Amino acid sequence: STNTKTFILDVGGNPLTITTSSLPEAEVGTRYVAVLQASGGVEANYIWDMVDDDGTGFTLSQYGVLSGTPAAAGDYGLVVQVFDGTTDVQSSLILMVSAAGIQIVSSNPLPNATVGLEYTTTISSSGGGPTSTWEVINTVPAIANGPKFTPPGNASTGVLGWAAGNIVAGQYKVTIKVTNLETTDQKTFDLEAIGL
């Protein structure tokens, strides 16, 4: 005789997995958007959620769009979750936020200089880290023994100047550079020197 037995073979699909393992770097003050990815499970049912934003204020839409504007540099640990209607999985992702690149923000032209008098003016910047170094690249035409920054500067300002008698009447172009961490900015200013 022949014995027959029927078996039911359950062939399951691929398990639900968050496939995004790293995030692009963000910058302080710049709007950030990244799309997270998952695989397996029931893809049509994916619903994403932010479990822990680590104080960044970032949000994660149900479609997996991570967005926000970081306020401070640092490394942040985000915990995200995706649910497919049956199963949910979580993943921890590191969001690296760098300081914004430095930029000279003072308007052009510089205040007028007066022949025979000492000159000082403050140049301002935004972005960057806690310390900045300021320098004059060149002046056209040249200004004798100057100008220079004294002191070299701090996080957001540099004091540009020269001693009395260092300039003659005319129109000048002064190119200034500021360096902060690994970022630099350079800007050329117009300057007019007038006689007494």
Structural description of this entry:
The protein is mostly beta strands. The protein has strands at residues 17-18, 26-27, 32-35, 38-39, 47-52, 59-60, 65-68, 74-83, 88-98, 103-104, 113-114, 119-126, 133-140, 148-149, 157-162, 170-180, 183-194. The strands form five sheets. Strands 2-9-8-5 form a four-stranded mixed β-sheet, with no helix packed on it. Strand 14 and strand 15 (157-162) form a beta hairpin. It is rod-shaped and about 120 Å long. It starts with 16 loop residues before the first strand and ends with a strand.
Please give the structural blueprint.
Elements (H helix, E strand, L loop, with lengths): L16 E2 L7 E2 L4 E4 L2 E2 L7 E6 L6 E2 L4 E4 L5 E10 L4 E11 L4 E2 L8 E2 L4 E8 L6 E8 L7 E2 L7 E6 L7 E11 L2 E12 L2
Parallel strand pairs: 2-9, 11-17
Antiparallel strand pairs: 1-4, 3-7, 5-8, 6-7, 8-9, 10-12, 12-15, 13-16, 14-15, 16-17
